[in-house]
TrEMBL record:
Descriptive protein name: Putative NAD(P)H nitroreductase
Binding site for FMN: R10, R11, S12, R35, H39, W131, R132, S133
PANTHER family: NAD(P)H NITROREDUCTASE YDJA-RELATED (PTHR43821:SF1)
A GO term for molecular function: oxidoreductase activity
CDD domains: YdjA-like
Cofactor(s) required for function per UniProt: FMN
Alphabetical UniProt keywords: Flavoprotein, FMN, NAD, NADP, Oxidoreductase
Keyword Nucleotide-binding appears in the UniProt entry: no
Annotated organism of origin: Winslowiella iniecta
Amino acid sequence: MDALDLLVNRRSASRLAEPAPAGEALDNILRAGMRAPDHGTLQPWRFIVIENEGRERFSALLEKAARDDQMEQKAIDKAQQAPFRAPMIITVVAHCEDHPKVPRWEQVVSAGCAVMAMQMAAAAQGFNGIWRSGAWTEHDAVRDAFHCREQDAIVGFLYLGTPQLKSSTTVLPPDTAPFVSYF
Ligand SMILES: Cc1cc2nc3c(=O)[nH]c(=O)nc-3n(C[C@H](O)[C@H](O)[C@H](O)COP(=O)(O)O)c2cc1C
């Protein structure tokens, strides 16, 4: 796949099924994440791959958190089902440290770039996915499960798999003018 074509025409995919990337394909995805721009070579990210029984564990975690928070049954069911929207989820944690030259926000942005890089690497190999966040990224039980320290942040859950729908909407060439100026 042509790199420019991928970048200017990419779409996320939320309807995902088996197979999930595995073996060399998954390795390529993780290596692409590791090549995110990284001020100070801090590698300020952690990738937690959730698949197979991991999805059951994640589901149980979210269900319990929703029950503990006394959410409505509908919300509890939604939480319990969330991990089954794709055969694989990669939780991306910005693993931040105090650094004299690299503020925390730069480290969080680096981790976000890793999400994008992994999504593009998935798409380049015939897979796809969607970057999701939501309130669970801030929830103590979820943060604890992914070993977040106080200075860390869950930047997202990258849902990955094989897209079930051919992208229905073509990407129209964007009007860049309102967003771009020359100094
Ligand atoms: C940090 C971040 C968090 C996001 N969280 C969600 C989310 O929780 N749920 C969702 O449907 N889309 C979320 N999105 C947006 C999707 O990843 C996706 O970009 C959007 O559905 C538009 O589709 P497109 O990528 O094909 O343009 C998030 C995007 C970013 C960058």
